[in-house]
Amino acid sequence: MTTLLIRFGRIMGYTKAREFNVETAKKLLLVSLFYNANVAFALASLKGVNIPMYIAIKRLTPLAVLIAGFFYGKGRPTTQVTLSVLLTAAGVLIAALGDFSFDLFGYGMAFTSVFFQTMYLVLVEKSGAEDGLSSVEIMFYNSILSIPFLLFLIIATGEFPNSLSILFAKSTSLSFSVLLLLSLVMGIVLNYTMFLCTIVNSALTTTIVGVLKGVGSTTLGFVLLGGVEVHALNVTGLVINTAGGVWYSFAKYQQKKNKLPKVMSDVETRSK
């Protein structure tokens, strides 16, 4: 659906996304591979990890992105940024100590998902900066390159062709059709905003925004879904985790605010 929408938008003149290029596709092949691996391992982890703890583990991504960014030449982040990310990670570890429904398989899948998410976000940021690709173009290539991986996945897991009979049986249900359409729309919007945020800001900022988004998801997971053993350590860890995300946002805001006067003074100097 994403591929068709972008293609239609380009023909109608709604987007300036360039035509499909084989060389560009080769460069973005790893992005797509890591993206789909992240999705696959994330879904697999939910079989053994409850929603609040899954979100908490995924909040380790900022720390992983911070480390990856240091190694690929982004330089050393500010002290506040580093400390806020470490606080976010510490919250995850404390929350894990209070998770009495610990499942080794689920945790293993979730941590693997963190690795793949880190890799594709770093590569998206790099592609936007070095190759001048827009978020729409990256999403277009990612959608096309994802089709073979996803086809292999659904065949290997036995979802295809069994899922077709379920789909046809459910197609007469209005509520199912509405939910399917909403899932498609939300998925497209989510991918677009995620790629856009990563290119305009950074991979680290995208992951921290995800931490703040997780506050609502965590609360809903505890209240609505049930089946979660609430413990003082668990709740404390999640609170610390969230505080780290808020601190990061404040640190980045202060960093941007401090840069503005310097930029203005440079402009004034050049004009003189």
Task: Describe the protein in words.
It is built from twelve helices and no strands. Helix 3 (29-45) packs across helix 8, helix 7 (104-130) packs across helix 10 and helix 8 (135-156) packs across helix 10 (174-200). The protein is globular, with a radius of gyration of 21 Å. It is an all-alpha fold and 272 residues long. The chain is 82% helix and 0% strand. Residues 263-271 have low confidence and may be disordered.
From the structure above, extract its key features.
12 helices; 272 residues; transmembrane; Sugar_P_trans_dom; mainly alpha; membrane; disordered C terminus; Sugar phosphate transporter domain-containing protein; TPT_transporter; globular
Which shape, going by the Cα principal axes? Answer: globular
**How can the largest sheet be summarized?**
none
- Gyration radius, to the nearest Å? 21 Å
- The level of helicity is over 70%
- Beta-strand percent range: under 5%
Whole-number mean pLDDT:
80
Distinct helical segment count: 12
Distance between the termini: 53 Å
Order of helices and strands: HHHHHHHHHHHH
How many strands in all? 0
Structural class, please?
mainly alpha
Give unreliable regions as ranges: 263-271
Membrane topology: Multi-pass membrane protein
Domain Sugar phosphate transporter: 4-249
Protein name: Sugar phosphate transporter domain-containing protein
InterPro entries: Sugar_P_trans_dom, TPT_transporter
